[in-house]
Structures are given as C-alpha cells and as structure tokens.
Specification:
The structure is a homotetramer. Helices cover 53% and strands 6% of the residues of chain A. The longest helix of chain A has 20 residues. The structure holds a DNA duplex.
DNA sequence: GTGGTCTAGACCACA
DNA sequence: GTGGTCTAGACCACT
C-alpha cells in the first residue's frame, strides 16, 4: 500500500507524502480512515519514525490528514481544495519542466498526451470529483 | 533571456539548466549559437561561477550544449533525443506528481489539459520537430 | 454547554477546563451549582473519563471547583483571585504572543482592541465583579 | 537578542520562533538582514541544530523569513500579512483564554487594558505599519 | 560555509 | 497505545 524506493534520490519523507496522497486519491484509503501509526509505518518501510512523522506533519499542514491527540492519524474528511497563486506558479513550472524533459526525450505532443491520459486514468479515472462535498452524499 | 529566482527552492544550477533548455526550445538561441561564457553568465545572474559551470557541465553531459576548448560554449547542432527506461520512469513519476498536486488544488481534467496545452504552445507550438529531422539535416 | 473540538490541537482536558471556566464566568453555572459527574461529562463529550477526571482535578487545584466526597463536584462558592508573580509573567507572555500573531495578521491596534472588547463583553460584560466582593458576601 | 528559557515548558523551537518574531517586530533585525546560521544559533542557545532548523522552517512557512540555498537565512523583505479564517478563530480563542485567566487572577478590564497597552507599546509603539509596503518606501 | 535529510534513541504529554 | 520534542551525530547538496 505505502511504498518507498531507497534507490530513488527523492527524499524519503516526500516519497511517503506522495505515497499517502496516491493511496487516498486512488480510494485505497477513505476519508476518516486511520493511517498506520508513525511507528507502524516506520517499521513497514524500514525507516525512522522521525521520517514518517515529518511526512505526516506536512500532510497535516496541507489538510490532507488530521491528527487526533493520542488517538492517531486519519484521512481528513473535509478536505477543501484551494488554489494559491504561489502553488499555481509552482505547478506551471513543474509542467513546463515535464514538457521540456519530454521534448528532449523526443516525445511529441501526442506521446505526452498519451502518457498524461494513461496516468490520469490510473489515478483518478472518473473519480474526478471525489474530494468535493457533493460526492460524499 | 536567462533568468533565475534565488528564492525558489529549486537549485540554482538546475534553474540555469532549465533556462538554457527553454531558450533553445523556444528558438531564442539556435543550434550552433554561442552561449555566454561561464563568467559572463555568472555576472548576469549575480551568482557564483561554479554554479554556472556546474549547469554547463550537466548540459554538456546531456549533449545539449558543446564546449570547444578555447572557443566557448555552443548549442549542440546534432542533438539526438533518446528515451532511456530510467528517464521514462522519472518522467512518469513527475507527471503523476503533477496530476496529484493539480487534483489537490481542485483542478479537473479539463483544467489540467488547458494548462498543459497553454504551456505546450508557449514552449513548442508547431516547432515540434526543431530538434530532430529538420535539425539533423 | 460544555464543548470540545477533537481536531483542535489544544489538549482535550485543557479544553474542558476552559469550557468549564467559560460557563462559570458567563454565569451559565453559578457558585454552588453541581457539575455533571465525570462519567456523565465523558459520555456527553464522547471522550475518556480519565480525561475529564484530569480536567476536574486541575480545576480543583485552582480552587475553581470543589469535590464533596460521595456528593459530587460543585462550582466553588469562595473563589479568591490571587495574582502570583509566575502567573503574571505567563499572562504577559501570552498577551505578547497574541499581539505578535495579530500584528503578523495585519491587524492594527484598533482592530485588536475591537476584538478584545468584543470578547470581553461576550464573556464578562458588566459582571466584572461576580467572583469577588459580591460572591464572597 | 535571541533568548530561550530552558525552565519554560513551552517547546524550545516555539520559543525560538517567538524570539525571532519579536526581534523582527521590534526592529532589532530588519527585512533583508541575515539571521544567524542554524549552527551558530544552536551554539548561542546551547541547543541542538535540529531544533533551530525546525524553528527556521516554520518561520519560513509563515513567510516571515526566507532561505537562500547555501547562503543562509534572511528576514523576508516582502512579508504580506493575510488573515485566514482558521487563524482568526485561533487568535480569538487565545484572547478568550487570556481574558479568562486574567479574570481568575482578579484583574479588571482596566487592569487588562493597561497590560495590553504596555506590551503593545513595548513591541510595536508607533511602528504599527512597519510591515506594509508604504513604509518601505 | 549554508541548510536539508536521516538515524538511533530518549523522554514526555495525552487519551 | 498515540504523536511531539529533543539530542547527538552523520552525510549530502548547494553556493
């Protein structure tokens, strides 16, 4: 369910963040569900509890998960997406970088679109609205 | 032409790499054109020459630019795109990350597609082939 | 009457303490009134009896409530305010923190004063003396 | 300049945060100024670099300070105050707590107002606008 | 030199 | 049991 790749030079705590996000987006864990405890997940991933803790803290700051004192960590039930100007710029920068990388790999527009759609369906499929209130009804 | 943002938490040498790539892709500098010297660019960007040097070295390793001893640094005239399995995986990982970020910002598939196309046109438009057949001729 | 917010990162037992204090200050429960039993309140708040017990113990240590063995817990009828040097320092520290937070939120002196007065009236209004001379009579 | 109190049961990293904020608000360090390095400050306060780092990270998240890769940490030059609903609620909660504490110490409205004004002048005096753009002109 | 990441291991407050 | 804080010490990427 949650995976990290020790060969990946991306920081472990960020891999955990993305892994949790992915599990939530894919619906493998639902709003309100309990996440593994810091210690549990640390054992599962054979990493340090502090590293998991750091990941959980960042996820909480994004309002993606919530901590209930002494009880554990849970998927937020009321996540409200919001677009900050800074985030939008970062997103565009990332997309630009992706497009340039793809271009230098010789991929054409259709190729990139293909990958894009493939990954989109894998992640979100037609659950595109699964974080808005209407859907929780 | 080349720009960096010292507040951006993306490494400056990588920002330089991306800036050079972007200029090439947009056709602002053409294959065979001379790039500013390491010292010149360092002054322009008010950064450390070592940082510029690091960027140039990496660009050379990608065969995007070429250094001719004593003459300077030039945009490669014979760039041949190639798709390595490792790079493809990285690209997909980045796209996945972008999609998840976009999703958590509340963007729908059409929104993301819109941004994607906007940036694609800004970067490449119908110059999609300017590093392949036409250039190798 | 008594409320807690499990998502609030403020400890639940302290939330209970503040909730009880607030009810007393607002006059919703009067000196001599019986408080719900530990178990009752735990059920009401869907929390652990130990947590309620901890809150009651602390309130008793402050002489704000009193426990009569076998009879229950009551609002103290003879609360005598006292200013200890340590408490005064803590209070000033808290106020300083509030002022800094408000400043970084862009609030001006008048704004803060406005909030301050609003909350003061909501809490105490002109009941400013209800724990001192009038009550000790 | 920066001080912590090891007897204070408030977490050290939060004390550092408040200490830095206070120094900035009082104008002891100005926008653009370099803060002591993580290691320096850790030595000064005889605490662990990780603890200082945690404080700096949170301050950066608040946009109060900025990190320039490899160069150090600086007071932000373009802090823009913003009021989020959540923060406003927290502020009001804190003020409410302060008022209740003061009340139970026997302080009257005038007493609290006195302390409030004293601390406000000590901190901000007539520099009330020192974080807005007009003032940096 | 700078900050960022990670580990191992400790202690604490809270529910 | 839970997460939060802190230390000591290591290694790394970046400028």
């Amino acid at each position: 369910m949650f995976t990290i790749d020790s060969k990946n030079n991306f920081p472990i705590y960020k891999q955990i963040i993305n892994s949790v996000k992915e599990s939530i987006i894919k619906g493998m864990i639902l709003p309100g569900d309990k996440l593994p405890s810091v210690r549990e997940l640390a054992k599962l991933l054979t990493t340090n509890p502090n590293t998991v803790s750091k990941a959980y803290n960042e996820l909480e700051r994004m309002h993606i998960i919530e901590t209930l004192r002494g009880k554990g960590t849970f998927v937020a039930i009321d996540y409200i997406p919001k677009i900050e100007a800074g985030n939008m710029l970062k997103l565009k920068d990332e997309i630009k970088k992706v497009l340039m990388d793809a271009h230098y790999m010789g991929l054409k527009k259709d190729d990139i679109n293909g990958i894009f759609n493939e990954l989109y369906d894998e992640l979100l499929n037609d659950k595109d609205t699964n974080i808005t209130k209407e859907d929780t009804v």
